[in-house]
Structure formats: C-alpha cells, structure tokens
Specification:
Length: 607
Amino acid sequence: MKEILLFTTARSVDKTVHKLGELGVVDVKEIHRPEGQVLEKRTEALNSAEKAIAILIDFNHKRKDAEQGARYIVKDPKRLVNRVLLTTKIRESCLNKLEELQRQLDFYKTWGEQTKAEDLEYLERHGIYLRLYKVDGHLAPSLAKRHTLQFFNGKEGKVPVALVTKSKNEKLELKEEHIPTIGFDEVRRRIIRKKRQLLEIGMFLKDQASKITDLKRYRLLLQDQLGTQQILKSMGDVEGQLKYLKGYLPKDTINDFKTIAEQENWGFSISEPENPEQVPVYVKNPRWIGIINPVMKFIDIVPGYKEVDVSIYFLVAFALFFAMLVGDAGYGVVFLLIVLFFRRKLPIQARSLIYVLSGSTIIWGVLSGTYFGSEHIAAIPFLKGLIIPNIASFGVDNISFMMHFSFLVGALHLTIAHAVRVVQFINSVKALSEIGWIALVWGLFLITEQLVLSRSMPEWGHWLFVVGALLVAFFSMEHKSFFKSMLVSLANLPLSLISGFSDIVSYVRLFAVGMATAAVAASFNTMILPEGVKGLGVLELIMAAVALLLGHGLNIALALMAVMVHGIRLNMLEFAGHLGVQFSGEAYKPFKLVYTDSLKQKNTRTD
C-alpha cells in the first residue's frame, strides 16, 4: 500500500470526489470528523430505504409470483419508501387496536354480551356496588367466606367473580376487570373493519414487493450520495481555496490514479506509509485461495499490515480439520447435495468452499469407513476395501494411533508456522530463533507422546531441547545488549514451553470430537433401529425415517458447531500464535461509487 495526499481547488472539489469514486481505489481517511445537516439527512434517507426494502422482502416471501421480480420502473423511489414506511406504521397501529378490541371481545365472552357500564352505574345510584375480577380457582373458596361473591364459568384455571357489596370502599386485592366503553356489537364491527384494513395493507405491500429491485438500485444511489458527502466533509481546507485529503491505495493501482490525476490537474504526493499501524490491509489472493474469504469475513479478522496473510494455511488446515471433526462420508454427501441444490443462490466463493469441505469430508469418511454412523454400510465389501484400519471408526481399537496422529498434525501445523517465520526473517538472526522453535516443537511432541501415550522418547530427543533453547535464547531478540536479550529470552522460555506443550495437546480435540460425532450417529441408529428394518411395516418405516432424519440432523448441527469452535480455534489461536499474527489489521475499503459503477456495467452489457 502507498500513502497519498491529494490537493484540489475548492471550486472543483465535487468533481474531484466524484472522479475518485468512479476510480474506486483510494481508501480515504478522515482529516476532519464529517458532520452537518446534509449528512444527517442523507444518513436518514439511506436508513429509511433499507427499512423499506427489509419490509418488502418480508412480504415478497408471501407472494405467489415472488420470482417474477419488478414489472415496471419506479419513477419516484423516495415517495415509495415514504409510502411503505407510513403504511407499516398504520399496520402496526391497526394491529395494536385489533389486539385491544380482541381483549374487549374476550371480556364480553366471559361476562356476557349484554354487560353494560350503564347497568353498573344504575346499581351504584341505588347503593349497590358490583366489581368484576378473575380469581385463581384455589383462592375462590377462601374469598367467598369473607365476601359476597357471584361465580361464573371459568377457564384456564381462572374463575370470573363478581363482588357484590353496599360499601363503596370494599374491594378485593386483585386486578379489577373494567367494562369496555363500547358495546359488544360495536366491538365486533370494529374488529371486522380492522381486519379488512389489515388485509388491504397486506395486499398493498405484497404488490409493492415487485419493486424491490428498483429500491435496491435507489439504495445504491443513496449510499453513493452519503459516501460522497462524508468525503467532502472530512477533507482538509486551506483558507477556503484548496481542499485536500489523505488516503491509501494499492501499488498496482498507482498508474490508474496518476492517469486520472493528470487529466484532472490534481496535485498529489505518493509515498511510503509513515505509520504502518494505520495502513489498511489489502489482501489479494488467487481465486482458489480466495474461497476461504467467507470464513475470514464471518469471524471478522484481518491480519496487520506487517503480518503474514494466513489465507492459504487456513484453507488447507481448515479443510483437514473439517474432515476430521465431521468425519462422516454420508454427511459430506448431504453437504454436497445441499450446495448443488442451492448453487444459484450461493456466492461462487462460498459454493467453492463447501465443495472443498464436503469433498474432504467424503474422503475422510470413506477412509475411516463412516457412513451415517452405520457399520453395516461400512461392511459392504467394496467400501470395506477402502478403509485404512488405523483411522477406522468401527471394529478396531485405534485410539492410541488417532491420538498420535492428532499430535502429529499439531506438530506439523506449528512447524509450518515457524517455517514461515524463518522465511520472513531470513535476513535477520531471528530466523535462527525460529529454527530453534521448530526443534522445540518436535521436542514437545516427543514429550507429549511419552506423557500421554507412554511412548519412549528417542535418545536424541533431549538434544532438540538443548539446541532449540540455545537458538531461542541467543537469537530471539535483536537488542543492543546481547546479554540482556539472552536473559529476557531465557526468562520467557519456560512459560513459552508450557504454552507450546498445551498447544500440541489441544490438537487431540480433532480425534475426540470426530470420534464423538461417529459415536452419536451410531447411537441414533441403534436406538431407532435396534434390529434393522426387517419386519417393519410401512408406517413404522416412515416413523423411523423421520426419527433418523431428526437425529442425524441434530448430530450434523453439533458437528458444525464443533467445526466453528475447534476448527477455527486451532487456526486462529494455536497456529496464529506461533506465527506471530495478532489480526490487528483494518480491511482496505476504497471509496467507490457503487451506483455509478453498476450503471456502467449495465450500459456495457447493453452495448
């Protein structure tokens, strides 16, 4: 990334910002905090448009012709947004009023359709007071002993009670029921009118749902207007004559920027960034590596400007972790069928990623003989011949090997992290300390094998700690005082070794969770079909199929949760910690006029 400082005259500042937006490569940083009434109005307009779109999308799902899209162009999208929002407010008011009317109708159903407030007033003028309550059934007998009560037919444990008294002050310590101010017949008529009004509102909103596409284009226009206003208000000013802004742009876009700058007579300066911490991160990977981007965006992490991009390492490791944690070829086929069914609705990166993950899961499931947790399927001769006994899910005792394999995966994963740092510091003595850490990782691997699996450490194993500790102590810090650097490194080494040991042990979760997924699937099969499908009737088969669908659906959900927790954790904490990546970066977000760009693309397709 390069840092840019751009100057333009106050008279041409609007055109300058528009050109920058069309170019779409400069990540503009604020010089002044943008504020003002125009900015507030444009923010409000954008928020209103987004609310209207969300409302119409909800109603679009209720349309039988939802797939037909817009039938005509909206001439005044702002007016449509206001109408949709106003209609929604009216709808909410109708719903609230209908709820209130329904409570009044329930009152009449409880106390009688002919109940009137005038009758109570008549009794009060003659010294008789009538108060209405709903009482819990178990409290009614005790209240009847102290008061004169008239009971009515109750429901849901509540008993309607009328307190009859000649004292104006005598009351029950309960919530009193009040007679509606309008009569029963009028309440019913108003309910009918409100329902008819709600029906008309729903039909209007469903009809307007055909205009969502136009409103989305309008939203793009509002986003452009808001972004332009934010840039204008955040620019610096020189005596009202010059305007300037600061930003960043990728190296491969400098020539495009210079071409526009020369055409528009801008003054500019392009230099190396002074503060790397403030530089946005621009990650550009080949298409096959970029398929991991949906996961990176989901967990919302960006490496720092000077940190290593972990995309390729994350992709390879995540595919392996996903396969081991899910571990069932049947589930992998389910994922594959789902993505094939929804392929047109999924972005190409997400679609490609699921292809990779489902494919890796199928391969692992075939090699481990796991098909919906069924040993009978795995026993089919052809499928049985594909099983690797050491990683098989059923029929063999391979716990020791699988734990060994998990530790081995962890050691290799962490070794790759330190190997990348060796290349990163190849021109520095710190590269030797990373080589030392590789030796320590494998020493810790041997210690883990000895403590957990009771495998004897080779005679040369202790030399890994000796050589590794010396390299780390001597070369991990570049400091003017050699002895001070060594003492600091030695002081930090014990805690680092303990942390490294726990990091390797934590990879055992790959085996443990994968085994649990297979065991749960097998348990569902045994509970639902303890004796297989022989002798079951049609109805029993249908019920068993539904139960299996629910059971395996739950197991798949738990497996995917495990992937999100454990598969991502091993990449983001263990691997990234050894790689020295803190994900402290800010993503590169260039100022770009999206609506203008969409118009250009539309015109290009038309031509």
